[in-house]
Structure formats: C-alpha cells, structure tokens
Amino acid sequence: MSDGQTSAGGDADQHVGGVRSVRRAFDILALLSADRPVITLREITGATGLAKTTALRLVQTLEETGLLGSHPSGYTAGPALWRWAYLARGQWEVPQETRKVMRELADRLGETVNLFVARGVHRICVAHEESPHPLRHVVDVGDEQPLWAGASSKILLRGASEAFLRRVAAASPQGEAQVERLRAWVTEAAERGYAVSSSEFDEGLTAVAVPVTGRIGRIVASLSLSGPSHRFPYEAVERFATELAEGARLISDQGFSHPLSSDA
C-alpha cells in the first residue's frame, strides 16, 4: 500500500472517529433537561453506554469549551449553552401578539395550544400555551415530532409532493403503506379546513389543527389544540376548530413568519 493510500485511509478513520465523538458529546448534552438540570458521571455512563474513561474525557472537553459546567452534584449547562440559548431565543421566539392570541385560546377553550412548523420529515413546536387543567398535554418549545401522524402533520403536509410523502411514510412504523393514509388525511383536512387526530401519536391524546398562512398565502405553520381524548367529544371538535380558525386568521393577519418556516 502506498503512503498516499495509507494517509487517505488514516484521514477517513479520523473523520469517522471525530463524527462519533461529536455525536457522543451531543448525547451527553441531551441528558440535560428542565427536570434534570444536573447530571452525574454515573448517569452519563448509564444512559449512553460509554466507558467511564471515555465519558470523563468527553465531559472534560465539554467543560473546556463551556458547554458543561461543574456543579457540586455533577455537571450542568455551561455558559456557552446559555449564549446559544439566548441567540436561539432571539431568533425563534414568536411575537408577543401571537402569544396573546394563543393564550386567549388556551384560557377560553381550556386546552393546550401549540404552534408547529415543518422541518424535514418532522414538525417542530415553536410556541405553546398550556391548558389550565392539571391533566394536560405538554409539548415543549423545540420538541420535534414526526410528520407521519398527528393533526398538525395533516395540515403541514398539504401540497407536499408524492416523493416527500414517501419520505415521511418511510420514517413511520408502517413504512410505504402509510403513503395512502397520509394522502387521504391531507385531502380530508384540506376539504374540512381543519384536521383531527386521536391516539395517532400519543395514546389517549386528541388534537385539532388549522393552517396559519404566510405573506404569500402558503401554509407556514399549524395552530393546534390538544388534550386528553375524553375532553374532546365529537360535538366539541367543530367548536374548537372554529375558534382555532379565527385565532389562526389573526396570527396570519399579523404577518406571522418564523426562521424555520418555508415562508420566512
């Protein structure tokens, strides 16, 4: 083997190893949450399956770059993450007038209101206002959910190409068999003007969603209402959809746009 071949092979190995290390580092950071703001080395090795020495090396690197910080009980988010969070908040946060519309809907209808935009084969929550009920559906801002199920997906997939529907279906447990169902759901939602889902993604959860349009009239987001199925009787769904549609019209008239939306 020539020196050139050896060098190329070594570079490829280093590239693969580097990518693996980056992924492992993100796996560690992903363990942090509002419910678990501090993580221990034992929790890291238990959740990731990494050897203690490997986990410790990665943690030390994350500390050096400011992505993790030392804590008496373990490790917590570092200052670099706060800088990124501040940047993301400034770009992602929806206007106050949009949040006001959503808050009024949540208070009036008594259920959680979410705003989703499509990104790839997922939808991302960019704003939410929680239900006043103790038992409620909670989706955090930034959460990703698949486009192969759910009321908001049926709204966001309107106008999608056949090739894209196949991509979405391929990511679902049903695979290619989901394409026909997706096509039927999207058509039904377009005819009704709203979409409904029940236990499609989360068991016992029902959602109603309507489109939010952008400057050129294209769907850029879905506005949804979600909660326990027993609080969504058939006779209430029409009323929920009507109220949501009025809220979506107000948000659209405000000129809603988002960095992740196709109309931004």
From TrEMBL:
InterPro entries linked: GAF-like_dom_sf, HTH_MetabolicPath_Reg, Tscrpt_reg_IclR_C, Tscrpt_reg_IclR_N, WH-like_DNA-bd_sf, WH_DNA-bd_sf
GO MF annotations in UniProt: DNA binding; DNA-binding transcription factor activity
Coiled-coil boundaries: none
Ranges for domain IclR-ED: 80-257
Presence of keyword Lyase: no
Record's keyword terms, sorted: DNA-binding, Transcription, Transcription regulation
Name under which the protein is recorded: Transcriptional regulator
